Amino acid sequence: MKDQCSLFLYPTLKGERLSLNMTRILIVDDTKVLADNIADTLKMEGYSISVAYNGIEATLLFKRDRPALIITDLEMPEMNGYDFIRFVRSGNIEPLTPIIIITADTNDETASKGIAAGADLFLTKPFDDENLILSIINLLENVQHR
Amino acid sequence: MNQVKHISSKQLELERNATILSLEKKLEEANQKFEILTRTTNEAIRDCDLQNNHSVVWNHGLTTLFGYKNHSIGNTCETWADKIHPADKEDVLRELNETQRSIKINWNGIYRFKCASNVYKYIYDRVYIVYDQDKPIRMIGTMQDIDDRMIAMAENERLSLVASKTDNLVIITDGEEKIEWVNDAFVKRTGYTLQEVMGKTTRILQGPDTDNAAMERISQRIQNHESIDEEVLNYTKSGKPFWVKNTINPVFDDANKLARCVVVQTDMTAHKEYQSKITTIARDLSDLIENANAIILGIDANGLVNEWNTHAIITTGYEKSDVFGKELASFIVEPGKRHKAKQKIEFVLKDNHLTHEEFEITKKNGKNNILLLSATPRRNSVGEIVGIIAVGQDITELTEHRKSLEEKVLLRTEELNIALAREKELSTVKTRFASMVSHEFRTPLSTIRLSVNHIKRYKNRLTPESIDTKIDTVLQQVDHMSHLLEDVLTLGKTHDVTIRVDKSTVDIVAFCHKIKGEVEGYFGKSHVVKCTLSFTEKEIQTDEGLLRNIFINLIGNGVKFSPGKPTVFLNVTESNGGIRFDIKDEGIGVAGDDLERIFEPFDRGSNAGAIPGTGLGLSIVKKAIDLLGGTITVSSKLHEGSVFSVFIPNA
């Protein structure tokens, strides 16, 4: 499994970006420094950010902030990423919210498990942040056209 | 007599004209003679009148020879002809007619005649025919019983046919043992013709190797009127020897004198050759059994030993005289195992085979041996089972060798299994290491990439302070990875035992405060290290680098594994020539099952979950403490926390 998931087709960067003002993204990662850095970068891209450091926190922030997109790690204390994804998909609050997995685990099995749980995209660490930004745009565009 | 008178009446009438009286007298005499003749003879005489009604007159022979009583046969000539055997009748009557036509007065013939008992007898009939001017008027037949002679003749014919046609040599000698007759087989086998041997004795068949004693015996037995059965060596005309079995039947006359000998010789050459071949084979076989490089033993139907070869003697120490006629199981098998051995013998005697059966035997010297035996039933010439023949080998050494081999194999297998387990463990360690490295390096790398790209991408929009923060993040992550790398390398080094302990004076109070600061600084503001010392001044001789490594790891663990419990305690006390450090946390604890493996490299508690770590920390701590001559113990309770107690000696 490479940085990109083959299930997903990337759009080309063209024209001006969609107005994403106040579009909220929830970042979930137990490695605080990484979560914070992702948050910093996405803030610069114009998104509002919520950060959770484990699955339980994530469910609370998800319910409270209603993010337009979720970026989550898989291995976390309290509640792991798979369970969190399943929680999002099974609930009645925005169950179609795009979800991107970022993990240090490069197993193909892990990827398919993540996709099976309901993720839209699977990125392995260390991921290309340019890629992440484009993927977010794309996924959000797709949601708008649903 | 009246009839006779009547028959010759014609003559009498003819004579009467001349001198009736003298003739009557002569006739009277003739009739009397005839009557005496017919009465005294043993033959049957019939007198047929060929003129008047063919009447016939018989003498007493009809009764004595043929058993017809009171002339009950009837009184015509036809009644005689009716008694002739149907197969002979036509010929007899034809020949008689022929005789009469040619006016011959005599006819002789042999034919079968029916008796009163319905049995046919061979008779010899001499017929005399009386003519009156070429006309047959009377036929007198004298019938002689030749039945016995005919039967004897037929028998003779048969016998001589047998004698001449048999493959056996037949010699008939006279009273002086001179050859009278030999058969075709004799001529064929010896090469002598009948003419060549006629008048000679059977000695012409003898040659250089003929057994004289046997010949003497034959002579003796002939003298004693006994029949003889003796094998002798004969020679052909060309001098070729051949064995015969002589069967001699001497025949003696009424004066007890040797009349003739009938010698029948059966050619024994093929038989002798066969016998000699069989003897050779038997000898070879018995040599083979005796000298075979295997134990061969025989047992009769009663279970008694009757065969015991040299190898059996060598193997068991028992001589032939020790075992012959004794029950095998009774001396060679331990008492406890005799029953089983006897059962096996019974089994084979019931027409079964035994293949490669192991038997433990006791030798004459009391030592035990193991024999591998195969046995089959032994049969006599008519196929009855008369015993057992068994072939075996001593496999004692082989068995011992096999046992030691098995033990060796077992040992090697165990060694291999251990090596395999070690290999497997190593492989698991490697896999764990690879997964750890992969995981632990990917996360900081992600952060570094993000930070650097952040600066690169947004540098025009960033404040100098925020750029500094990003740069600090990068440096921190690089440090983190460097530590990780060092941990791995330290572990590698300790495995090589090349690590050097560099001791110097260490101020424990200052050291403790330094560590506290380092840990708190490293983990941000989430936790506090509460340091309690029982002294205000203490210096010991130890390696400060290793000491730092130990406590950074232990206190760092305390922080890492206590999410939400912000205090880690460090208690330092003086103890028995050294310092005792107790590091206590209120974190997740270690499960009882995990405690014993806690110092193994790459081992992480089952509840460590997503808490980052290499699994190397405690194994490094253990190594370092060992190098400093210290000890470490751990007590822990799940969900309540752990206490690590370290003793470092002052040396």
Strand content of chain B: 25-35%
* Biggest sheet details of chain A: 5 strands, parallel
Identify the quaternary structure here.
Answer: heterodimer
- Largest sheet strand order of chain B: 2-1-5-4-3
Give the DSSP E fraction of chain A (strand runs of 2 or more residues). 15-25%
Average pLDDT across residues of chain B?
83
Structural class of chain A, by secondary structure, is alpha/beta
Please tell me what the overall shape of chain A is: globular
> How many strands of chain B?
22
Largest interface: A-B, 25 and 27 residues
How confident is the prediction overall: mean pLDDT of chain A? Answer: 81
Keywords:
A: 146 residues, alpha/beta, 5-stranded parallel sheet, 5 helices, 5 strands, globular, B: 651 residues, alpha+beta, 5-stranded antiparallel sheet, 46% helix
What's this, in brief?
Chain A has 146 residues and is α/β, with parallel strands linked by helices. Chain A has helices at residues 32-44, 55-65, 81-90, 108-117, 129-144; strands at 24-28, 48-52, 69-72, 99-103, 121-124. Chain A has five helices and five strands.
Descriptive report:
- The complex is a heterodimer of chains A (146) and B (651).
- Chain A has 146 residues and is an alpha/beta fold.
- Helices cover 41% and strands 16% of the residues of chain A.
- Chain A has five helices and five strands; from the N terminus they run βαβαβαβαβα.
- Chain A has a five-stranded parallel sheet with strand order 2-1-3-4-5, sandwiched between helices.
- In chain A, α2 (55-65) runs parallel beside α3.
- The longest helix of chain A has 16 residues, at 129-144.
- The two termini of chain A are 27 Å apart.
- Residues 1-20 of chain A have low confidence and may be disordered.
- By secondary structure, chain B is α+β, with helices and mostly antiparallel strands.
- Chain B has 21 helices and 22 strands.
- In chain B, the strands form five sheets. A five-stranded antiparallel sheet of chain B has the order 2-1-5-4-3.
- In chain B, α2 packs antiparallel against α3 and α19 runs antiparallel to α21 (617-627).
- The longest helix of chain B is centred in the middle third of the chain and has 63 residues, at 396-458.
- The A-B interface holds A 30-34, 37-38, 40-41, 44, 75-77, 80, 102, 104-106, 124-130 and B 438-440, 442-443, 445-451, 453-454, 457-458, 461, 470, 473, 476-477, 524, 563, 609-612.
